[in-house]
């Protein structure tokens, strides 16, 4: 009998006589009514104790007459109509409501000062991270933890992450995925909370992009002479950083290495013909000429012949006008990439066939 005591404590009070339902019984009536009509009631957002109490109430209640149901619904509607505004409960709720509205630095400071961790499902936060932030976890955490994380990611994202890992590490993690079926929900939640806590502990960068991307973006719009001079200096100071910057740079002369042949017609359709003609006419040095030949060689022969005639008619182009036209071509490519219309190649890989 002693083992039944905890269950007895969970049992709700007996159902009152007709017309004397408590607020909790009325809430159970409304929930039951909404569920009967197929509405999605997010009960899992309630505290565990409240979910358990509601479940017990629903299990013990039997039926109410139509008049009582009507009275409960009318009272519920009156309370909704009288409700003017609600506010989030506590700092945690306020931070959740203001997520994305206040700066990450302010949010992190308030969370730290109040001792509040990120709310919500920790795995949703982990799954939303980009591959650059997931990669260190996959590289440095135990194989078992990495396998659990891989299993929680979307299939396409998991495949991309796996491809970024060394072969031996990727194989061990893949095998470990087969051992994750016995993990309990509690263990899964603890792992998610642990990874989320690591993310919370990481300092928030004041910049949107990492140093390589920032330097690469600056050099993209620098003159060729400035770009070469800076890269030469970086080679002497930090050759690894210089190599990463070179891979991040994308200029007019990089088009043959970074743009797939099939994407050239898509780019050409988005460009003002006069801009493209100016860029092609300004392609005078050997590297620029290779780019011009690459562009012309991957469009219809008729359009290529027409552009060649216009380039010949245009003649010599001022250096400034040519650079502006080439930058416009690059800007259009970047816009298509941002819109997901094309993907820049790595630069040191050939496009796969098929």
Automatic annotation (TrEMBL):
Mode of membrane association: Peripheral membrane protein
UniProt record, GO biological process: bacterial-type flagellum-dependent cell motility; chemotaxis
Main location class: other
Annotated compartments: Bacterial flagellum basal body; Cell membrane
Domain Flagellar motor switch protein FliG middle: 133-202
Keyword Membrane: yes
GO molecular function, one term: cytoskeletal motor activity
Domain spans labelled Flagellar motor switch protein FliG N-terminal: 20-123
GO cellular component terms, semicolon-separated: bacterial-type flagellum basal body; plasma membrane
Keyword Glycoprotein tagged: no
Domain Flagellar motor switch protein FliG C-terminal, residue spans: 233-343
Keywords of this entry: Bacterial flagellum, Cell membrane, Cell projection, Chemotaxis, Cilium, Flagellar rotation, Flagellum, Membrane
UniProt-listed Gene3D superfamilies: 1.10.220.30
Classification via InterPro entries: Flg_Motor_Flig, Flg_Motor_Flig_C, FliG_a-hlx, FliG_M, FliG_N
Biological role stated in the UniProt entry: FliG is one of three proteins (FliG, FliN, FliM) that forms the rotor-mounted switch complex (C ring), located at the base of the basal body. This complex interacts with the CheY and CheZ chemotaxis proteins, in addition to contacting components of the motor that determine the direction of flagellar rotation.
Family the entry assigns: Belongs to the FliG family.
Annotated protein name in UniProt: Flagellar motor switch protein FliG
